[in-house]
Amino acid sequence: xxxxxxxxxxxxxxxxxxxxxxxxxxxxxxxxxxxxxxxxxxxxxxxxxxxxxxxxxxxxxxxxxxxxxxxxxxxxxxxxxxxxxxxxxxxxxxxxxxxxxxxxxxxxxxxxxxxxxxxxxxxxxxxxxxxxxxxxxxxxxxxxxxxxxxxxxxxxxxxxxxxxxxxxxxxxxxxxxxxxxxxxxxxxxxxxxxxxxxxxxxxxxxxxxxxxxxxxxxxxxxxxxxxxxxxxxxxxxxxxxxxxxxxxxxxxxxxxxxxxxxxxxxxxxxxxxxxxxxxxxxxxxxxxx
Length: 289
Description:
Layout: H1 20-26, E1 34-36, E2 42-44, H2 49-64, H3 80-94, E3 104-108, H4 115-124, E4 127-132, H5 135-147, E5 154-158, E6 176-181, H6 189-203, H7 215-218, H8 223-237, E7 242-249, H9 253-264, E8 269-277, E9 280-288
Parallel strand pairs: 3-4, 3-6, 4-5, 6-7
Antiparallel strand pairs: 1-2, 7-9, 8-9
Helix pairs in contact: 1-2, 3-4, 8-9
């Protein structure tokens, strides 16, 4: 077992690091990417997008019984331990008011990998509606849903207007336990490319973004702050459609303005749930009307 110093949610299957023999057994394609890192531990080169993808495939196979997970290399390859943490913290948030059988989640920006619905179904048997503005991503996600026989648990919807988030998606009959979102971080393609260059230098090479990602996954006009405030405003138009509205927030400075605006829009409760994975510190914000 390769130990790590990462601190995930108490329910995470990844608090003891990666068991590479077990992962290679689940996904033999991972074997060629395993190396000894500078600490003498088994690892992979995290600047290699192919290796990262095979590692995450192995994690899904070994721990979540996701047997098929194929999507284009241009799309964002999500790191499973961090993604499943959001699911666990969302479960904590819902545990006081929801029974397991009742939980239905709206995932904004489901992406080609369909990762949050897959993990939510696997870990908690939740139902999901996943949305995206990109039809190719939805096609890929639908293939994954079909291949894993999750059609009864996961529904996908196309957001036709890239400037809208909930409008055109939520209908009168919808009733969600929570809405979740991993928003685009950057204001433009140029900003995203600059961040990728810095990350590549830190990794010691000129690799492409190791988790990939196409335009709509990485940037939004006005960046994360604009996206979050649009999301918050639109949530106020559907106050009874979801018991909780939540999102990851990468930039701490965006939290205060979001909380202030939530009060103006009539939110009855606003929470900040801290998340920490190694050196990465982020948070989930949650509000309800």
